[in-house]
Amino acid sequence: MNQIEFLNLRQLPARVNSEQAGWLIGCQPHDIPVLMAAKQLKPVGNPPQNGSKYFCTAEVLEACQDRNWLVRVTKVIQDNWARRNARLRSPADATDLSVNSNK
């Protein structure tokens, strides 16, 4: 089932997987583990670390109604990408500095 078909369902399922939770929240599926690590999203039950995660649809939809939660989620995702991008740039910047210092 694709995103449009899912979001157009007359009644959503009681629990959703990571990809579907991302669709409901408006983020990418790869952002879901970041939100879980930041304790902004909690899976149903106690799944194993490498197991499939499911989320309560009602809880996700209720959280999406809270503007403050959406602000926190947005900040967590933005901070995560800023950290990842800084790590990627930092080794390249270090090499650029050593090249420039030789001139």
What does this structure look like?
The protein is mostly helical. The protein has one domain (about 5-100): Multidrug-efflux Transporter Regulator, Chain: A, Domain 2. Helix content is about 60%, strand content about 5%. The chain is built from five helices and two strands; from the N terminus they run αβααβαα. The chain has helices at about 5, 20-25, 30-35, 55-65, 65-100, and strands at about 15, 55. Strands 1-2 form a two-stranded antiparallel ribbon. The chain is globular. About 15% of the residues are buried.
Quick summary:
The chain has 103 residues and is mainly alpha-helical. Helix content is 60%, strand content 6%. It has one domain (3-101): Multidrug-efflux Transporter Regulator, Chain: A, Domain 2, CATH 1.10.1660.
* Biggest pleated sheet: 2 strands, antiparallel
CATH topology, what is it called?
Multidrug-efflux Transporter Regulator, Chain: A, Domain 2
Oligomer: single chain
> What's the helix count?
5
**Beta content:** 5-15%
Distance between the termini: 58 Å
Query: What is the class in the CATH system?
Result: Mainly Alpha
Average pLDDT rating: 90
Number of beta strands: 2
Helix % is: 55-70%
Q: Tell me the CATH architecture.
A: Orthogonal Bundle
Question: What is the helix/strand order?
Answer: HEHHEHH
Shape: globular
The total number of structural domains is 1
Structural class: mainly alpha
Radius of gyration: 18 Å
Give the low-pLDDT segments.
none
- How do the strands line up in the largest sheet? 1-2
